[in-house]
Amino acid sequence: MREVVSSASVPTRRRRATSTFAALVTVSVLVSACANSPSSSQVSNKVVSGGVAVYSHKPGDDFNWILPIMTGTSYELYNQNTELDMWRPLYSYGTGSQPTLNEALSIAYPPVWSNNDRTVTIKLKRFMWSDGRPVTTRDVELWWDLYRADKSSIGTYVSGDIPDNVASIDWVSSSEFVMHLTQAFSPLWYDSNELSVIVPLPQHSWDRESLTGPVGNYDLTTAGAKKVFTFLTGQSSKLSTYATNPLWKVVDGPWVLTGYSPTTYETTLSRNTRYSGPDKPHLKQVVYVTETSDTAEIDALRSGQVDYGWLPSSDYGLASYFSQHGYTVKPWITEVANFAEFGYTGPYKNLVGQLYVRQALQSLIDQPAYIRDIFRGHAVPTYGPVPIKPANAFASPQEKDNPYPYSVARARGLLASHGWTVKPGGTSTCGSPGVGAGHCGKGIASGQGLTFSLQYASGSLQ
Predict the structure, then answer these.
(1) pTM of the predicted model, to two decimals?
(2) pLDDT of 150 above 50
(3) pLDDT at residue 34 above 60?
(4) Which 3-state string (H, E, C) describes the chain?
């Protein structure tokens, strides 16, 4: 018997981008086995208690960082998603398809703003650690002290953001604390981008400088916090101990890691029987596997080794096959915008520094053709940093219309009107160097070619 498994919350990942082009929101196809025989085409929505579900990650999405404070090299969504199964953030985001606050899954009650949006008061709900101890503000303080002491080593840190924008914190009680900010902020922005980063850590278990040493209050000094951070990141680097290290057994989320392979990255999560939050697990275990290729993942789906997988764009034609063999096939809309960034400080800075060049490049991006021929219709065009699907309140009206639709003629005209000799099928060159109307622009020499290098990731198209 198989059961459909879905994540209770969708963490957000903040992206800061320069000017971009070729934005697309890709829509994968999600394949999940039903709670019935693989040979049956019927679908049962009955919740099944017990059992194991196997979830397939895409090639390269290797869970390899367990500490819920990620370094620059470990800051990936597949790491964050697994960590948040075990350690809940102060505020969880993701309500259905909307990137909004999920009050039910959040460890704290909604923040209360005052003092003209310069002060925020936070009260914790009654959550428990898996060893029976309550989650308190002291656990929030441990996160705060570690993050502040080693912010430059942390992947989510951005200069000027938390903790830089916090003047002080009053730890009022075991269930309440007050943050005094350096200036007024938009509560909507601060709640979703700053407060959502905070993940309470089990101070009574993790505030130590060695695995065999005593637990103390080392984090209360900067030097001590640095030592604790060094110890915890060192333990997180030891992949071979993930399943046995007692540190990782103290969780407040619905799952706890009980099995792990440092070579294949297969991760087994078992339900935390002491989970005190809502939406308690019904399955006994969830197993995350990383396939070596798209083909390997398809083969695993065919053979029934995977209960929850995905169809690469090149294999969308197999949707009917899997539907006929007991799988539910649905679009998997991810709220992520894919884009290419210009290198304003690199060797092509003089070229991409020209607005007309960027406009010409964007005019050569045939998004409808990409969606039709590459993604087989499973993508949505977008014209800014915020995805427009699923529909949300964060995308501005300007992002819903294409200011530079595909037009080779327009691109050719832009270049020609700025002094370029356009050579279709070859390299266009600057024929009129200099600044001002009719010239190529500052820093572009006579005869210079309009050429770029494009770095891109290989592997799965998804």
Answers:
(1) 0.79
(2) yes
(3) no
(4) CCCCCCCCCCCCCCCCCCCEEEEEEEEEEEEEECCCCCCCCCCCCCCCCCCEEEEEECCCCCCCCCCCCCECCCCCHHHHHHHHHHCCCCCEEEECCEEEEECCCCCECCCEEECCCCEEEEEECCCECCCCCECCHHHHHHHHHHHHHCHHHECCCCCCCCCCCEEEEECCCCCEEEEEECCCCCHHHHHHHCHHHCCCCCHHHHCCCCCCCCCCCHHHCHHHHHHHHHHHHHHHCCHHHCCCCHHHHCCCCCEEEEEECCCCCCEEEEECCCCCCCCCCCCCEEEEEECCCHHHHHHHHHHCCCCEEEECHHHHHHHHHHHHCCEEEEEEECCCCEEEECCCCCCCHHHHCCHHHHHHHHHCCCHHHHHHHHCCCCEEECCCCCCCCCCCCCCCHHHHCCCCCCCHHHHHHHHHCCCEECCCCCCCEECCCECCCCCCECCCCCCCECCCCCCCCCCCCC
